[in-house]
Amino acid sequence: MKLTRIVLEEFRKFRQPLSLDGLQDGLNLFVGPNEAGKSTVATAIRAAFLERYSTSKVADLAPRGESGARPSVELAFTHAGHGYVLKKQFLSRARCELLIDDGAQRLDGEEAENALAALLGFEMSGRGQSKPDLAGIPGLLWIQQGDGQNLQEAAGHAGVHLRDALTQLSGELASGDGDRLFERVSSERAALLDARNGRPKGSYKEAEDALTRAAAERDECAQTMAQLDADVDRLAELRREHERAQAAEPWKDFETRAAQARARLAALAKEREAFEGLQREQAQAAQTLALLQDQVRRDQQDESELQALMRDARAARAHVQAAQEPLARAQQQRQAHADTVEAARRRVAAVQALADRRDLDRQLARLHPEIERLDGALKEVAVLIEQGSALKAEALRLEISDAEIDALRKAGRELGNLQLQQQAIATRLRYQLDPGRQALLDGKAYEGAGEVLLTAAAELDMPGVGRFHIEPGGQDLPALQRDLARAEAAHAALLKRAGVATLADAEQRHARYGALSRELEGMRKTLGIHAPKGVEALRNQREEALARQAQLQERLAALPAASGGNTGEDDDDLPAAVQALREAEAIAAQAETALAQAQRALDADTARAQLLEGQAEARGVEVQSPERAAQRQARAGRLAEVRSTHDQLELRVRAAQAALAEHRPELAEQDALRFEKSAAIEREAQHKRHGDILQLQGKLDQAGAQGLGERLSEAQAACERLQRRRDEFAQRAAALDLLQQLLADRRAAATQRLQAPLARRLNHYLALLFPDAALRLDDALLPTALRRGGGEDLLAALSFGTREQLGILARFAYADLLREAGRPTLLLLDDALVHTDDARRDFMKRALFDAATRHQILMFTCHGEAWRDMGVEQRRIGA
Predict the structure, then answer these.
(1) For a Cys-Cys bond, which of 312, 561, 564, 801 suits 835, CB 3.0-4.6 Å?
(2) How far is CA 529 from CA 46, 196, 521, 525, in A?
């Protein structure tokens, strides 16, 4: 299949007709920048073949913003010795026409579309836009922008056509009795075995499940029968044990021995009560002894504390007498240092007053020129404001914006161009009348010689000769006259809105306005220099300066008058005077601190001495009273008596504790508990044996009534029957599995022979890019992995650029097979291989040039420089 001409009109960006003629049989390279319309041409080819002319879902084919558009495509192509011309128009007045062999045969509408689908190998959509799954061979060979790497889906949609071509080339039956047998075996095997894991399913699984349930019921009956036999033996054993225990009554012996142990415990309880009474008496005596010992210790401690308190009081009084002398010395030093501080303070005040007067004089001297500068700036600002107001008023009167002057210039140029066009295409009437003769043109008299431009029909009257009706012959002249009238009206409206008579007046006014604006801007900058923060801020600065001057003068007047003559004081002596004052104040402060510390120490010592003397006197009265002396003597005698009683009770407690320990009451308690628990266990065991006997007897009676033996026989018979049925399904499933494997092996061999032509073409192109590499094909004739270097990489794991390159090479191979099978081939590459490096691009150029020797290839790219070495002329689309 070879395209020879492509014509577009009102198709997306091509509002005017675009014609591409003289297409070559091999590679046709179309170049242009982005949005030049390359993809639009490729879309037009797809729409002409794949889209139904009657669909309304292709509004995006019309130029943007143009209602009532009629996107149309005309394609001329040849195939198998026949010439075809396809004309298709969408949306408004949609139609489709296919002319074959210069009109020898003509097809319209759906008939033409169905004929194209059968010829190229695709299907028309039932309704709406075309779908990728119906695109067939065009969907595989016509690569859209950014879609070169998506091979699997496109080849899958064209699989039927590819398999038919391979069948025709290889002689293998792609579908026939072998496939039908394989499908039947697979279907019957799938009815019995799961395709994923080979496990039983359907009736086979039902037979296995029924056998499993029957075996479970049989095993349950057998287990129940075995348990029943065990229960019979257990019942006999329980009856024998129950009779033996009932005759011996072992629990009664344990109860008697437990009662004897409890009696021994009662006798030991009385001895324990006597022992505990002795312990309580001993504890009371110990408490009394401890209390008396504590009281005696306190009496001794009170005497010791009284002696220590008296010694402390005497020492404190001696310390008070020694502190009197340091206090007197501190008072004398404090007074001397205070006189020194007062003299230093008077000297600092005199030096400070002199320094303040000189500082105020300096500030006033600096402030005076600042006030004069501010006064001058205010006057200059007033003059600038007055001049600026006048200039601003004039600028507002003459203001004309850049947009207005640009619009006037543009309208003037457009009007001039239209007038030039009018003069170029208008009818020129040159006349030369004899002296004394005149002619009337639309009632206007003309004499002598001259020239008139006619832009509309006119009547020429020549007295004595006749009347002529003259119509200008230019077809575009009426439209040009209308455009000229609109342009003149628009130009007049702009002049009126700008308030000028001509463009020259507007230019002059705009220039004057610009000059005034620049002059105003200069005044603003000058004003900014004199008053950077505004006129009001400048006035505030002047007022603040005047206020500061008055404040300084007031402070100067408040200072004491300078003494006449040379006082010897200088403001340079101020730091020294201040330093001397600080040193004197520091020494005075230290003296004051020393005095305060000496006074506080004396006061503290005096208070402590008085406190200790008072405490010693009060404690002596209390401790040395006759009552306290009698109490101390009585407590000493009571202490000796209580100590003797406590020692005797301690001996009696030890003797009672030794006697109680010999009897070991804890062993008697353990014996009582042991025998009581043994008696309870024997009674409980006898009661449990009785209950078990009754339960087993009821269970055996019930089992006899259910006919357990008959159920077991029936379950065994059902298991044997279901076993045979399950074995039949297993044998059939194994046979089908084996048969499917044999058929799959034969089918794989046939598929390999079927794939041979495609593999040869793939390897032919692949060797140009990856020497010693091969593509692995699946049963659907689709490349799935790239084998190279002893390994294999799935296509999905390769980089985007590599997948795009392999996708294009595979399409070249598919095109070769289709061509050999007599099917039409046309390859479209829309901005392909943009993700290919320079080295790979050189290899792909070889493959592209090789494929172009057998197929027509239309390649659209915005990288024309990269494809200049393809040996074909580049055709530019767009600017």
Answers:
(1) 801
(2) 72, 92, 12, 6
3-state secondary structure of 118: helix
Helix (H) or strand (E) holding 633: helix 626-663
Helix axis angle, 535-558 to 324-398, nearest 10°: 150
Give ∠ CA 641-643-646 in degrees, rounded to 5. Answer: 110
The rounded distance, in Å, linking the Cα atoms of 58 and 130 is 10
Q: Give Cα 727 to chain centroid, integer Å.
A: 60
- CB neighbour list of residue 365: distance below 8 Å, 6 or more residues apart: none
Least confident of 422-431, 817-826, 834-843: 422-431
What are the structural domain ranges in the chain?
1-137+866-879
- The pairing of beta strand 791-794 with beta strand 2-9: unpaired
8 A C-beta contact, residue 157 and residue 819: no
Query: DSSP of 291-348, one letter per residue?
Result: HHHHHHHHHHHHHHHHHHHHHHHHHHHHHHHHTHHHHHHHHHHHHHHHHHHHHHHHHH
SS3 content of the chain, % helix, strand, coil (to 5): 70, 10, 20
Rounded Cα gap, residues 280 and 241, in angstroms: 56
CA dihedral 168, 174, 180, 181 (to 10 degrees): 110
- pLDDT bucket at 858, cuts 50 / 70 / 90: very high
Residues 189, 196: Cα–Cα separation, whole Å: 12
Query: Which superfamily, per CATH, for 1-137+866-879?
Result: P-loop containing nucleotide triphosphate hydrolases (3.40.50.300)
- The packing angle between helices 665-706 and 626-663, to 10°, is 50
For residues 786 and 806, the answer to whether their CB atoms sit within 8 Å is yes
DSSP per position, 174-197? SSSHHHHHHHHHHHHHHHHB-TTT
In this structure, what token pair is assigned to residue 751? 């598929």
Strand, helix or coil at 75?
Answer: strand
Q: pLDDT band at 614, cuts 50/70/90?
A: confident
* Amino acid at site 218: R
Integer Rg of the chain from CA? 64
Q: Assign 127 to helix, strand or coil.
A: coil
Residue 47: per-residue pLDDT: 93
Q: Residue 738 phi/psi, 5° resolution?
A: -65, -45
